[in-house]
Specification:
Rossmann fold; 32% helix; pyruvate-formate lyase- activating enzyme; 6-stranded parallel β-sheet; alpha/beta; 3 domains; 5-stranded mixed β-barrel; OB fold (Dihydrolipoamide Acetyltransferase, E2P); binds iron/sulfur cluster
């Protein structure tokens, strides 16, 4: 049986797709990237933004048409839209076979094996955390591990707590078990995933314990995490970041707005000054840390003054990068009851202003790297070829340089010579042979989701956001954070 699985949305959805592949692994299952060849088509969806939802539904409408020439094909919608819209999707997309929410993927093998394609709806609330399911193997140097699922924060604009369910942490032992498997293979960098990793709890263990234990595994050179809620960012976690050398000096800390009034309406549970205190603490303890954020413009009631507070926040914090969006109503959220009173033209103008201001801040921070050496974990051949390789600095900056004998998976030093767009370009000065235990040829295509996916997404940088701002382009749309 040939299965095609297409994934929309955040890293958590990408991770879930690897779980799904693992759950469907059997001797007669094969995967295809071509839906026209597939017997089963699965679309794992995201509903955090209206645009993402419309794209996924449009794609599904095209895919069910394939049944006209191949009537045995089965088509299922998975993920957040499935959970949000449930049975109504059968009317909206005639020909759909299954609607499966994010907590019900264990039922997929039965659904696919079942005869007659009964149309079925499954939805969550079970507290599923897939502790015992290890995602399909990763063949590149970077991988993701989900440490928790769901969210209890109920930010007023966000649909995640409704479609992903309440927050539940995965047992530390299960996380370490998965990380050990990865570190004994090709993986040198692990990104720990959760809607709000800062509220991770397993008995007496908090997220700083997860960081320390994953970082201590032999072979793991780097650990990153997303996402942090500012209200839960603790001194204990900041100390772990500063004390454990494998933990990268890179923190994504969504601010959403610089206005106390809007933060209150968003139910973010912190004030502007508390946010600034947290970023100051981070900068005090973590050398050369890169802080990135999310900004949501055009929230109901956002005035010019509120927006100016957000622009001032950009200046004060000097974020390394900003993922910016304009507000769209999400049914079922608290903000859906507010009047969406900021005109689209104003939302767009504000989004453009954020992007333009942040562009010059980001370029300034990147320019400051010229002449300096950065440590790079090599992820892939550079897209423009010519024997160039690409990797990332500890601050998550993309670095491109001529390979000169280095390989994917190597840690190396690169002296930065120039900045092109948001890419640092340099020359290789040293390969850390003592830590280059994993090799892929630089000519081979690194097929790991973790490396290619992140590479593509990183290159869809703010300039693309500018071009696509009409569609709320979110580069790293980790749910709403
Ligand atoms: S924005 Fe983030 S923290 Fe807030 S409810 Fe959504 S996922 Fe949770």
């Amino acid at each position: 049986m040939l299965i095609h699985l297409h994934t929309y949305g955040c890293q958590m959805n990408q991770y879930d797709s690897e779980l799904i592949k693992s759950l469907l692994r059997s001797s007669d299952t094969k995967w295809t990237s071509d839906p026209e060849q597939a017997d089963v088509i699965l679309v794992n969806t995201c509903c955090v933004r209206d645009h993402a939802e419309q794209r996924a539904l449009g794609r599904l409408r095209q895919l069910v048409h394939l049944k006209k020439s191949r009537p045995w094909v089965q088509v299922g919608i998975l993920g957040c839209i499935a959970q949000e819209r449930k049975g109504e999707l059968f009317d909206e997309i005639p020909g759909l076979d299954w609607v499966v929410g994010p907590d019900e993927y264990r039922k997929l093998p039965q659904l696919i094996d079942g005869s007659g394609s009964p149309q079925s709806v499954f939805h969550g609330g079970s507290g599923e955390s897939y502790d015992d399911v290890i995602p399909t193997s990763v063949t590149g140097p970077r991988a993701f591990i989900a440490v928790m699922r769901g969210c209890d924060n109920f930010c007023s604009y966000c649909v995640v707590p409704y479609v992903r369910g309440r927050e539940r942490s995965r047992p530390l032992a299960s996380i370490i078990n998965e990380a050990k498997g990865l570190s004994s293979g090709s993986v040198r960098e692990i990104t720990l995933l959760g809607q709000n990793v800062n509220s991770y709890r397993d008995g007496n263990h908090d997220f700083s314990d997860v960081l320390r234990e994953v970082a201590a595994l032999p072979g793991i050179e780097r650990v990153r995490f997303i996402t942090s809620h500012p209200k839960d960012l603790s001194e204990r976690l900041i100390h772990a970041m500063s004390e454990v050398p494998q933990v990268c000096p890179s923190l994504h800390l969504p601010a959403q707005s610089g206005s106390d009034r809007i933060l209150h309406l968003m139910n973010r549970q912190y004030t502007r000054s508390q946010y600034l205190e947290k970023t100051a603490m981070v900068r005090k303890h973590i050398l050369d840390v890169a802080i990135s954020t999310d900004i949501l413009v055009g929230f109901p009631g956002e005035t010019d003054r509120d927006f100016q507070d957000t622009m001032n926040l950009l200046e004060e914090v000097k974020f390394h990068s900003v993922f910016s969006f304009r507000y769209s109503v999400r049914a079922g959220t608290a903000a859906a009851h507010l009047l969406d009173d900021v005109p689209e033209s104003v939302k767009i103008a504000r989004l453009e202003a954020v992007i333009a201001r942040q562009r010059s801040i980001s370029i300034g921070l990147h320019d400051a790297r010229v002449g300096k050496s950065v440590t790079v974990l090599i992820e892939a051949a550079a897209r423009k070829g010519d024997g160039n390789l690409m990797g990332r600095s500890p601050q998550d900056e993309v670095v491109v340089f001529p390979g000169n004998g280095a390989h994917i998976g190597d840690l190396c030093e690169v002296k930065i010579q120039e900045v092109r767009g948001f890419t640092l370009v340099g020359e290789l000065t040293r390969i850390d042979k003592s830590r280059s235990s994993y090799r892929l040829s630089s000519e081979s295509s690194c097929t790991a989701v973790s490396s290619q996916y992140m590479y593509r997404r990183n290159h869809v940088d703010i300039s693309l956001d500018l071009r696509r701002h009409y569609h709320h382009c979110r580069i790293r749309n980790f749910a709403a954070e």
